[in-house]
Amino acid sequence: MLFPNRSVLAIAALALILAACGQGREPDIGMAPPIPVRVRKPDVVQRPVLVAASGTVEAARTADIGFQVPGLVTQVWVEEGQAVRKGQVLAQIDATDYGFGLQASEGQAAVAQANLDKAQAGTRAEEMEQARAAYEKAEDEYHRYRQLYERKSMAPVDFSKVEALYRAAKAQYEMAKNGARPEDRDAAGASVSQALAQVAASRKRVADTRLVSPIDGILARRAIDPGENVSAGLPVFSIVDLRTVHVRVGIPEADIGRIHTGQHARITVPALDGREFPGRVELVGVAADPNSRTFTAKISVPNPDLRLKAGMIAEASIEGSGKIHAFVLPGEAVVHDPQGASLVYVYYPDHKRVHARRVEAGAVRDRGVEISTGLSGDELVVVAGQHQVREGSLVEVMQ
Fold first, then answer.
1. How confident is the model at residue 327 (pLDDT cuts 50, 70, 90)?
2. Is the pLDDT of residue 307 over 90?
3. What are the two backbone dihedrals, phi and then psi, of residue 130, each rounded to the nearest 5 degrees?
4. 263 with 316: CB under 8 angstroms?
5. What is the spatial distance between Cα 148 and Cα 374, in angstroms, rounded to a whole number?
6. Alpha-carbon dihedral 331, 332, 334, 335, rounded to 10 degrees
7. Strand 380-384 vs strand 35-40: parallel, antiparallel, or unpaired?
8. Between β-strands 35-40 and 395-397, what pairing exists: parallel, antiparallel or unpaired?
């Protein structure tokens, strides 16, 4: 029986051991070729402190309008969502009764004006002549009967009647010569003023049967139809001006000292796919809400294309007072580990290797992303080739 050579067995056993040890073992990183990357230091920027707040979009102006007189609706010319202009007629109620009232008040004004004209013009010539003739006749009779009375040929009672007629004719003649008394003319003038005021009120009631828009805007609500009876003062239309909107937000007490009127803001609306709108702080509240302990701020936002609607939820980023230093990297320099944490790879020239460092990404600025924590600003961060490296990779920096 032949036995293998001992040296051959030893070599075979060693080969098996080496093969078994090599199974499932990763190759040594140090033996891998360097991975080409590009590195750069973060940009250092100085920006205002940003105060974040949530709020609701409101119309710059809202007009809830109704008829000032009651009546039956005969016409409605607008629909919800329709653009309306200031002064545009929106609806009409029956004006028949109000028209009759205007005619009556105009007639009363004409009578009052005629009385005033008569008082100011004085007595006409024929009336003056008639008063003078009556006075002269009464005077002649008075003197004749007085002689009879003095000779005891006339009873005192009969003479008293003659005397009374004389005095009345004399007074009538004096009034004709002097015209109307000042107080009579004043009373006639006051009657005219009262009648004209009534005419103006009647004309206003006729005009109030047509409901017009007080502002330019969009009809947000319509609450009447033809054939309905409406009461005076009941709002039947709501008109909103959305060319400029207000975003009302709540500012925490800790941040209210940083907010002032005139500061710039960026408004983001989730319902519009996160579209941003520029704005400016228009009002800062002076009293906190007792429940939420937040202060109200109002941000004015131009809305020329009317994309923003009243009631939309909005997120605001307000440039508060004060400055902070921040580091900015290209967005692609930030990667994520399997747990979703944000990482960047920092290059160490002495070892020519990169090591992962966890960072916290903040606001997006132009084409970069702000790094709020995790960097000091002196690091060389991998900005190209970062998806090819891992912790401790040997790299070669490309120019």
1. confident
2. yes
3. -65, -45
4. no
5. 137
6. 140
7. antiparallel
8. parallel
Measured distance CA(51)–CA(253) in Å, rounded: 12
pLDDT reading at 217 higher than 90:
yes
Query: Cα(370)–Cα(44) distance, rounded to whole angstroms?
Result: 10
Helix intervals (H) in the chain: 6-22, 96-121, 125-150, 156-178, 182-207
Asked if residues 314 and 54 have their Cβ atoms less than 8 Å apart, the reply is yes
Closest CA to 347 of 371, 375, 373: 375
Give 51's strand partners: 318
Contact 279, 299 (CB under 8 A): yes
Containing H/E element for 221? strand 217-222
User: Can you tell me which residue has the tokens 């980023």?
Assistant: 317
Q: What is the mean pLDDT of residues 10-38?
A: 54
Q: How far apart are CA 298 and CA 259, in angstroms?
A: 11
Judged by average pLDDT, the poorest of 32-36, 52-56, 136-140, 184-188 is: 184-188
- How far is it between the farthest Cα atoms of the chain? 207
Q: Go through the domains of the chain in sequence order and give each one's CATH number.
A: 27-47+326-397 (2.40.420.20), 50-61+241-321 (2.40.30.170), 67-93+214-234 (2.40.50.100), 99-206 (no CATH)
Determine the 3-state secondary structure of 314 from DSSP. Answer: strand
Mean pLDDT of the chain: 84
Q: Between 353 and 26, where is the model more confident?
A: 353
pLDDT above 50: residue 130: yes
Count of alpha carbons within 13 angstroms of residue 280, beta-carbon side = 5
The residue type of 212 is V
How many alpha carbons lie under 13 Å from residue 137 in its C-beta half-sphere? 9
- Which of the two residues, 180 and 66, has the higher pLDDT score? 66
Rg (CA), the chain: 50
Question: Quick check: 15 pLDDT over 60?
Answer: no
Model-level pTM greater than 0.70? no
